[in-house]
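Entry 0007
Protein: DUF4231 domain-containing protein
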Amino acid sequence: MSKFKLGDENFPALFQAADHASLTAQLSYYFALKSYLFLLVAAALISFYYPTDLIGALASVSLFLITLCILIWLKVQKPEDIWYNGRAVAESVKTRTWRWIMKAEPYDDDVPNEQSRKEFLLDLKSILDQNRSLSAHLQSDKNNGDTISIQMLNIRNLPFEERLNIYKNERVKDQANWYAKKSLFNKRRAKQWFIASVVLHAIAIGLLLWRITNPALSLPIEVVATGASAVLTWLQAKKHNELNSSYSLAAHEIVLIKSEAELVDSDKALSNFVVSSESAFSREHTQWTARKNV
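Output (structure tokens):
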């Protein structure tokens, strides 16, 4: 393992703060959504088994009140927006950081070191200014590190060949593996949840046909239908199919990017390669964020 490996802890403090805010908001959003869907099914189940029982009715009402509170919380707090804004800031900072340590435009050797540092810091400030709504969610203890870490300086000062190898292994290869794994993961999850939805719908249809043959039967059709709707809602929220397509496309694009690395033979070529690669990495995230806001 290279001693110049650039871990998350070596990136600017703004990256770490935005990354933490994004992950926290993402966990909160999905926890709230899971709780909402689970409680809806539980309320329907209690209502079915205890239709005339006072305690059962009170329990159902309580659960529906809790789900209402969850909906209000999601609307007011908007954890999904914090999640995406935090991710946008973190990825923007990461892209700028890689361009700076690789001496890619606008931070190449044609610019004096002190000026390149100032431009880098101004770019990070601009990223934060464009996402001021995120500021309230950035924890101060995650923002007390260095803006330019020792590891960043060490890599920037390496010879051209070493910087190229680090970029190929630590950035391009890492992104290729990440997108490939995420594509397969979302493909499997999409299939699993689709099967679950089909099974629940089939059960509901079967129960309806059964009740037609015997109207006196009391069957949990509404409960199963609520469960099927919950599965569909979860599948739509997770966007497994869209993510699978998006990540698969990005993974194939990165394969082409990796082949371009063989043609890099100078600092200028490295700068162009890094700018092109980072634009490709940013494009996938920007497109996904745009689709989310539609």
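Curator remark: The radius of gyration is 25 Å. The chain has two domains: 7-155, 158-294.
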